[in-house]
Design goal:
By secondary structure, the protein is α+β, with helices and mostly antiparallel strands. The chain has 9 helices and 12 strands. Strand 10 and strand 11 form a beta hairpin. InterPro entries: DUF4331.
Length: 463
């Protein structure tokens, strides 16, 4: 969660596991869109001597659909290579790493960027450096400087970064996966009533862990549909975004080495947060990861009648009577179908639409004509902030609470004025916010905070 270890097979392959995807008009550069794809979940910062890195054998991609067919119109491909400087040491570094070309850094990683448009590939850059992992004050004394060195503007206009960052996703995994407990409401839980007499204090399970981010800042003109107007009503202003990871179909092993051969097969993908995690049944999750968004009509039935919506009245008896009646009526959830699979059409919310047409596809839909909010609301669209999730996704959006409230029925009145959401539906949350992420978010690219270092994580006890 949002897509950490969400499917049985990809949970065994963290290097290819897409954990979070963000897409938003850059608040400090509103003529660009920022796209961030995170991989390799729940990294322990002290995880040496083999610190975390991208897979040399994985094809990472960020895709943009600008005509609503669920197929990529523009894709950015990232391929990584690793070089060992000293083959006589077991150490990641033999002294302080003070620059990206430091001789003390033994295991460097580089990457290429290729843009695919209309079936044609254009290599934009090669052998771009990744920064090292953040090891500690002796090994990486000026980590922010190293990350700055690895933030590069390409001749084609894009700004790129690929490397370790602090995981900015906040979620109370420990409670949610303990039979759907939400600590702020644990005393109302069907089983929790016997254990808890009052609300509990939420815990951000992913705090002080790192991820690896591929961050890309692209001029809007390069992702929008060509020759279109760009008012918020115009279809050409809306893009759909998803990320994927692919591996070659065959691997030959022997003598401590392996060789990958054959065409690439997709093993992971991510559009909307929590889609595969919460909507898709476990038996279908690996299949979902292998398919393109254009095939997502196969999963529409799980959006129409989501399992979690049926569970909430059972787990919290008497708290969701209106949702319970809606579930029993078996009415397809047109609100969720729009939010997750087609985008919201004009006329539903004043001054807003991010509809991409009839094609059902799990993509982060972003109306690029809507300007960044002067003051962000963590509940995004539900909080009256048209620039927030599910209009794209910003790094501080509270997607867990937004998704919980939508599934609980808060968004049903968008399509059924006669439905009254339960009072509790508008209060659902796991109790966390961006303030529960220890590493401060940045107000500039790549926006996610400086990764936690292994020496100070967890913080050493003070005497």
């Amino acid at each position: 969660m949002s897509s950490h270890r969400e499917a049985p097979e990809i949970s065994k392959d963290p290097v290819a596991d897409s954990t979070d995807l963000y897409a938003f008009v850059s608040p400090d550069k509103p003529d660009t869109v920022t796209l961030i794809a995170n991989y390799i979940p729940a990294q322990l910062p002290s995880g040496g001597p083999n610190f975390f890195e991208f897979g040399d054998d994985v094809l990472y991609e960020i895709h943009i659909d600008n005509n609503g067919d669920g197929e990529p119109d523009v894709s950015y491909q990232f391929r990584f290579t690793t070089e060992i400087t000293n083959d006589r040491t077991f150490l990641y570094n033999t002294g302080p790493i003070e620059s990206l070309d430091s001789k003390n850094w033994n295991r460097k990683q580089f990457y290429s960027v290729t843009k695919v448009v209309g079936g044609k590939s254009y290599q934009l850059a090669k052998k771009l450096p990744c920064p090292p992992c953040n090891i500690g004050p002796l090994s990486t004394p000026k980590y922010s400087y190293l990350a700055q060195q690895a933030t590069l503007k390409l001749h084609s206009g894009e700004v790129v970064f690929a490397g370790q960052r602090a995981d900015g996703f906040f979620v109370d995994l420990g409670s949610i996966f303990d039979l759907g407990t939400l600590r702020p409401f644990q005393q109302l839980h069907v089983a929790g009533k016997a254990l808890f007499k009052e609300p509990g204090t939420p815990v951000n399970a992913l705090d002080r862990t790192n991820v690896h981010s591929i961050a890309l800042q692209v001029p809007l003109k390069d992702v929008r549909r060509p020759n279109a107007r760009y008012g918020y009503r115009d279809a050409g202003a809306v893009i759909g975004v998803w990320t994927s990871a692919s591996r070659q179909e065959m691997r030959r092993r022997g003598h401590g080495r392996s060789v990958d051969i054959g065409p690439y097969a997709q093993v992971s993908r991510l559009g909307n947060p929590l889609f595969n995690e919460v909507i898709v049944p476990m038996a279908e999750k690996d299949r979902f990861n292998a398919l393109p968004p254009s095939e997502d009509k196969r999963f529409a039935r799980f959006v129409e009648q989501p399992e979690l919506a049926a569970l909430l009245p059972v787990l919290y008896p008497g708290v969701f009577p209106n949702l319970d009646a809606l579930n029993k009526a078996k009415k397809p959830r047109a609100d969720l179908l729009a939010i997750l699979l087609t985008g919201i059409p004009e006329g539903i919310i004043d001054g807003f639409q991010n509809n991409t047409g009839k094609q059902q596809a799990d993509m982060l839909r972003l109306n690029t004509a809507i300007k960044p909010a002067a003051k962000q609301n963590k509940f995004g669209l539900l909080g009256g902030d048209l620039a927030g999730f599910p209009n794209g996704r910003r790094v501080t959006d509270d997607v867990v609470s937004i998704a919980l409230r939508a599934i609980a029925g808060v968004t049903v009145p968008l399509v059924d004025k006669g439905f009254k959401p339960d009072d509790a539906a508008g209060q659902l949350t796991d109790g966390l916010s961006a303030a529960d992420v220890t590493a401060p978010f940045l107000n500039r690219f790549p926006y996610l905070g400086v990764p936690y270092d292994g020496f100070n994580n967890p913080p050493a006890a003070k005497k």
